[in-house]
Amino acid sequence: MFRGPFHVLLFVLYACNGAQDITPTTLFSSDQTVRDIKSTLLPSTNNVKTKFYAWTKDEALVPLNGRALQDHVILSYSGKQNVGQCALECLKVGTCESFNYEHTTGLCELNNSSHVGHEDDLIAYSSKDFYLRNTFSIDKVRL
Questions:
Q1: CA end-to-end span of the chain, whole Å?
Q2: pLDDT per residue over 44-88, tens digit each?
Q3: What is the pTM of this model?
Q4: What's the half-sphere exposure (Cβ side, CA atoms, 13 Å) at 102?
Q5: Is beta strand 73-77 parallel, antiparallel or unpaired with respect to 48-57?
Q6: Is the per-residue pLDDT at 113 higher than 90?
Q7: Per-residue b/e over 80-100, b at no fewer than 16 CB within 10 Å?
């Protein structure tokens, strides 16, 4: 069982020949053990390998619900199924400092700035939430 900060697992599939990660990446939370999850999710084909990483959300860094940072969006992605998928996109882009996530449509907007020093750009938006990049982290050590 996971204890302490909220944890989810990052499950990454990749081809054995060294190709890019197969998308979409699946993010999920669970009370199951890592062994239980691996046995449930491991693919049956021999040409695909899996990697599991610990994924932590820092509960002390709460999102700004109903707010979005405008005029700082550098990349947008549609159809993200949850905020964890949006957070992963932000972590993959070195210039991403924060992101907006729209729960109703799955729109993910990566920002090149945080709200600090740009408070006037943080606007009310009922279906979006604003997150800082360091709200989420991935443990670099594979489980």
A1: 14
A2: 444 445 565 666 777 667 789 999 999 999 999 999 999 889 998
A3: 0.62
A4: 17
A5: unpaired
A6: yes
A7: beebbbbbbbbbeeeebbbbb
CB-side neighbour CA atoms (13 Å) of 99: 31
Q: Cα(2)–Cα(5) distance, rounded to whole angstroms?
A: 8
Concatenate the DSSP letters of all residues of the chain into one string: ---SSEEEEEEEEEETTSPPBPSSPEEE--SS-HHHHHHHH--S-TTEEEEEEEEEE-TTS--EEEEEE-S-EEEEE---SSHHHHHHHHHHSTT--EEEEETTTTEEEEESS-STT-GGGEEEEEEEEEEEGGGEEEEEEE-
- What's the number of CA atoms in the CB half-sphere (13 Å) around residue 39? 5
